[in-house]
Amino acid sequence: MNADNDESTDDIRLARACASGDPGARHRLVREYHPHLVRFFGNKVPRAHVGDLVNDTFVRLFDRCLGAYTGQGRLRSFVLGVAYRRALEHFRDGERVAHRDSWHGDPSDLAPSPSRITAQRRRRRGLCAALKRLPTRLQTSLEFYYWNGLTTDEIAAVVGRPVGTVRWELRQARERLKHLLESVDFDASEWLDVASSSSA
Predict the structure, then answer these.
(1) CA separation for the pair 160, 77 (Å, rounded)
(2) Where are the alpha helices (DSSP H) in 43-188?
(3) Rounded distance between C-alpha atoms, residue 45 and residue 97, angstroms
(4) Can you tell me the distance from the alpha carbon of 200 to that of 195, in angstroms, rounded to the nearest whole number?
(5) Helix, strand or coil, per DSSP, at residue 94
(6) What's the CA gap between 31 and 28, in Å, rounded?
(7) What angle is formed at CA 180 by the lines to CA 118 and CA 147, rounded to 5 degrees?
(8) What pLDDT, in 10s, does the model give residues 134-192?
(9) Among candidates 95, 178, 74, 96, which has minimal Cα distance to 134?
(10) Which element (helix H / strand E) includes 19?
């Protein structure tokens, strides 16, 4: 059995255990996916709503969604799909899209020194300010791809758009983000290098 099959089998076991009410499995799922959900909602809604939306997502997963998971696709994309649909409901309910004043998806966060912490905070603020100027569709595709590790096929399944559209959105998002950052003289070379090293 190859690694992909092992991962799929583990995902199915975890989903089934969670759906059956196994507290250990539910604790593991929360531990693994809570940071992803906090980051996902935290960059799109006011801070006061993040906790409720994360909790709502887990309740939905445990009460009904995980029981329907068949192992088609990674559990990560399934969980983020439930979160994405909850976010759409939130927006349809008339909640204003807003952004937190920090960005937690920076791939360079590795045991920073005090001076680096200060620099990173400035960098996060600049990056978040630019991200909030992107259309939500582009921002979501960008986050799913770079910070949640979803493939373009998985993103397409989550957001309900063709793979070609998702690839186009990623190209547009990278290009627009680059221009936005350059327009405010923000040095995003480290992040842009990370972004351009992965192909959509």
Answers:
(1) 12
(2) 47-60, 75-92, 114-131, 136-146, 152-159, 163-183
(3) 5
(4) 10
(5) coil
(6) 5
(7) 65
(8) 888 888 998 898 888 899 999 999 999 999 999 999 999 988 888 888 777 666 555 54
(9) 178
(10) helix 3-19
